[in-house]
Structure formats: structure tokens, C-alpha cells
Amino acid sequence: MIQLELFLSFFQIGLLSLGGGYAAMPLIQEQVTHAHPWLTAAEFSDLVTIAEMTPGPIGINAASFVGVRLAGVTGSLAASLGFILPGCLVVSVLAGVYRRWKDGPVLHSTLGILRHAVVALIASAGLGLLQTAATAAEGGFDLPRLLLAGGAFLLLRTRKPSPILVMAGCGAVYLLYGLAAGL
Amino acid sequence: MTGKKRLWTLFTSMLTISSFTFGGGFVIVGLMKRRFVDELGWMTEEEMLDLTAMAQSSPGAIAVNAAARVGSRAAGWPGLLTAVLGTVLPPIVLLSLLSLCYGAFRDLRPVRLLLAGMQAGVAAVILDVAWGLGDKVLRGRDPLGLALMVLVFAAGHLCGVSTVVLILAAAAVGLCRGLARLHKSKEGGR
Asked: From CA B10, how far away is CA B82, in angstroms rounded?
């Protein structure tokens, strides 16, 4: 049953994404493009773009986006429920545990190490997206889009503009370029 | 405030906050603080900070976890369910609709070009996030963490090791170090 598969996949994503929205992204990528043939790399890239442009946590955005395509409304609900269930359960249990152990060395050390691993995974997912963006639809190398991504990155590092504005700007620039170049 | 009215307030508050919050979990936590601490007076600022830390240390979306804590603090289990429902409903409905329309629009030339350009932008945004976070953890000067960061990147990006395995392995390393430190501090205290 596809609903059950969606639920289990997104339960796994929900359970293992420590550190908020971006931490979920590498896990989503693995589940929906590698472990299951649900999205292509380009579709995943579109999903991240759409999730960034809309409100709500990326995990729920991804769960609804993938779920509804595979199994309609029930798929969307099964995947979203799977994603939020572990967090809601853990946070309820943690409420009791937290006050006693929050400054303890075990929890502190585990979270500290995990933070490093998560940064590495996010960087790896970002490079994956860059590879997708720098590959032309026909399979060749897409220099204009690589330059666009490089420019956007420099702008983000130096001026701290809103990410949504940067993405919309990239879209607009490439649209104009594509229309002019007859792509 | 009666029980039913309280649940309704909880639901509509979370629905509104969730519908209009772009950006990460911390943005939504800020808005929740304004609503539940400053406007409604349902909890103190300190409680809000504590539950933010709990939401952050739990897996999944920070916004949903924080909503679960606020809801359960305000009205027990019914409150938890109400607050979470209010938080997840807007993105579920919106993304389900977008997903259905996306198939029909994707192949139109302007949409295709726009999405292609935005893909380049989103790669830059994610790399910028990784850079910012990396900068922060590098300042912690934790040699074991740094070694692990390099290892995880190499194993995940170059060798294709599963993300699940990498996260569980990192958690195990952190747990072992924590237990070793605990052991040491107990011996030292004797």
C-alpha cells in the first residue's frame, strides 16, 4: 500500500531530521529520489524551490507535494502525519526529561556532534542541487545557470538579501535570458 | 476563557501564524512568542524559551514541535492536537494544490525557464545556509566534531553512504563522548 510506504518513509525523515527544516532536506532527497523512485533529481530541485517560496516547514511541504502526486489526498495526509509524529512524541517526552538533563554532558555532547554532521549533510545536499542546476536538460554543461548560482551565492554572502527575493530574481533573470537566447 | 473557546483561539492563532510565515522555524517561534506571551499571556517568556529549546532538540520541524508544546501547555492533549493541526493545515493544503498544478504548468516555456533559473537560486540559498551554519560550528573549535564533519561529507557526498547511517553514527559518537565525560567527571568528583 503506497500510503503506508509514504507514512514510513516520512516517519523516518521526521525521526532523523535533527536541527530544523534544512536538516530534513538531505533525508528527503535520499528517500524520494534514491530509496524510492518518486521524484527525479530535477523534480526534487523544483520541490525545494517551491518549498522555499511557500510558508511552512520543508518536511511538511515535501510530504504533501510527494504524497498527493502518488496517492491523492490520503497520500498527502499519510506522508505529513508520518513526518510530524516522531517530533510530537519526542517533544512531549522531552518536556519531562529536558529540565533535568539539558546542561548534562551526554545530551550536550550528542547534540554538538550531530550539529557538525548535519552541516556536512546540508552542504552535500546544496552541492547536489548545484549539480542539477548546472546540468542542461539535454545532459550537457549549463554555464549560464552555474554563473547565476555563483552570483546569487556571492550576493547572499555579502548583502544578506531575502532568499525568496534572490530566488525570484534568479528566475526572472534566467527567464529573460532564455527568451532572448531562444531556449 | 472556556475550554472550547481556548481551543478555538489556539487553532486560529496557529493557522494564521503558519499561513503567513515564510522562513525557518525560528521566525515562527518568534511570532508564537508575540501571540501567546505578549498578546494572550498564556505563558511566560522563560517558558517560551524553554519550549523552543525542547522543540529544537527534538527531531522534525521546529514549528510543529513548538506548537505541540504550546498546545499541550495551554490545554493538554486536545490542545496539542489542535495547535499541531492549525500549524500543518496551511502547508498541506497549499503544497497539495501546487503539486497538482505543477504537472500542468511545468512544460510551459516561461514556467520552465523560471523554474530553471530559480533552481540555480535555490542551490545558492542552501549553500549559503550551509556556509553560515558551518561558520558557526567551526567557531566551536571542537576537533572531534570537525573531523566528523569532513568524514560525513566525504562518506555521504563522494561514497554515497546513506544519510540515515551517517546521522545514527554521528549520534553514537557524540553519545560515547558524552558518557566518557560523565564517567570522568564522576571519578574526578570522588
From this structure: 7
